C-alpha cells in the first residue's frame, strides 16, 4: 500500500463530513428561503376580496385614482401606485365600496 492512498482515504472521510455539513447548511438555508417565500406570498394577500353590494358578491377591488391595487394598512387603504389615500372601487362595476 502506498502511504498516499491512506492519506487520501482520510481526506475522503473529511470531505464526507464537509459534504454533510454543506448539505445540512444548504437544507437549512433552503427551508428558510421557502418559509420566507411562503411568508411573502401570504403577506401579499393584502388585496383581499371585498363585498360589492352592486355585484352582490365578493370581488377584487382597485383604487379609483389609478385603477391600481389597494394596499391595506392597519386603518387606511392606500393606492399602490400613487401611495395616496385610495377610494376603493369594485373592479367589475367601478362603484365605490364602503366596508
Ligand atoms: Zn361591483
Ligand atoms: Zn393612485
Radius of gyration: 27 Å
Overall mean pLDDT stands at 83
Report the major sheet: 2 strands, antiparallel
Q: List low-confidence stretches.
A: none
3D shape: elongated
Bound molecules: zinc ion
Give the SSE order as H and E letters: HEEEEEE
Q: What fraction, in percent, of the residue positions are helical?
A: 40-55%
End-to-end separation: 83 Å
Write down the domain tally: 2
Q: How large is the share of residues in beta strands?
A: 15-25%
- Main sheet strand line-up: 1-2
Structural class: alpha+beta
Give the helices and strands, then pairings.
Elements: H1 3-43, E1 50-52, E2 57-59, E3 61-63, E4 70-72, E5 77-79, E6 88-90
Antiparallel strand pairs: 1-2, 3-6, 4-5
Explain how this protein is built.
The protein has 99 residues and is α+β, with helices and mostly antiparallel strands. It has 2 domains: 45 residues; 41 residues, no CATH class. The chain has a two-stranded antiparallel sheet. Strands 3-6 form a two-stranded antiparallel ribbon. Strands 4-5 form a two-stranded antiparallel sheet. The mean pLDDT is 83. Bound molecules: zinc ion (ZN) (2 copies).
Amino acid at each position: 500500500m502506498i502511504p498516499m492512498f491512506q492519506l487520501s482515504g482520510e481526506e475522503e472521510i473529511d470531505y464526507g463530513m464537509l459534504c454533510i455539513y454543506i448539505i445540512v447548511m444548504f437544507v437549512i438555508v433552503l427551508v428558510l428561503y421557502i418559509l420566507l417565500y411562503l411568508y411573502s406570498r401570504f403577506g401579499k394577500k393584502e388585496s383581499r376580496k371585498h363585498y360589492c353590494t352592486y355585484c352582490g358578491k365578493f370581488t377584487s377591488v382597485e383604487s379609483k385614482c389609478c385603477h391600481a391595487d389597494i394596499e391595506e394598512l392597519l386603518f387606511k387603504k392606500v393606492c399602490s401606485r400613487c401611495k395616496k389615500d385610495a377610494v376603493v372601487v369594485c373592479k367589475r362595476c367601478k362603484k365605490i365600496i364602503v366596508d
